[in-house]
């Protein structure tokens, strides 16, 4: 929680310094109190939740590995098509990260693939999103 909050606060302050002449602002005590209550009351904001993403970024681990379908020709073609979509979606994450469009948001990019969706893995930073780390849901 502290790492995540400090990261986004730092990003917001740097952006503010670059685009305006106002002094860097600090969140009000009310905002800090709300952040503390979120951390204590909601599991998704508990300390340590952000660490899988940080650990993956630092170690360069790629998470789940892509396993090609070993079956009929149709399955192989479907798997090849899925891999192309995975690569394109991974590239889209990295491009948006380079343009700064992933800052201060909690969002995802998804793509329809076969009978399901490929979605952003929640434990990855956008610049470390790889084709094999995307999650397929039905």
From TrEMBL:
The record's Pfam families line, in alphabetical order, gives: Aldolase_II
Region (Disordered) residue spans: 60-82
Membrane-traversing stretches: none
Sorted alphabetically, which InterPro entries does this protein's record hold?
Aldolase_II/adducin_N, Aldolase_II/adducin_N_sf
The protein's superkingdom reads Eukaryota
In this chain the Class II aldolase/adducin N-terminal domain maps to 89-136
Protein name, as recorded: Class II aldolase/adducin N-terminal domain-containing protein
């Amino acid at each position: 929680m502290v790492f995540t909050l400090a990261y986004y606060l730092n990003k917001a302050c740097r952006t503010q310094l670059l685009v305006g002449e106002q002094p860097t602002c600090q969140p009000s005590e009310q905002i800090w109190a709300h952040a503390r209550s979120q951390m204590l009351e909601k599991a998704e904001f508990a300390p340590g939740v952000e660490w899988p993403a940080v650990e993956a970024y630092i170690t360069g681990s790629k998470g789940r590995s892509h396993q090609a379908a070993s079956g009929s020709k149709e399955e192989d073609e479907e798997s090849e098509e899925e891999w192309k979509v995975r690569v394109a979606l991974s590239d889209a994450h990295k491009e948006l990260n380079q343009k700064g469009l992933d800052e201060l948001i909690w969002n995802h990019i998804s793509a329809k693939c076969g009978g399901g969706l490929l979605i952003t893995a929640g434990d990855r930073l956008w610049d470390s999103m790889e084709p094999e780390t995307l999650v397929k849901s039905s």
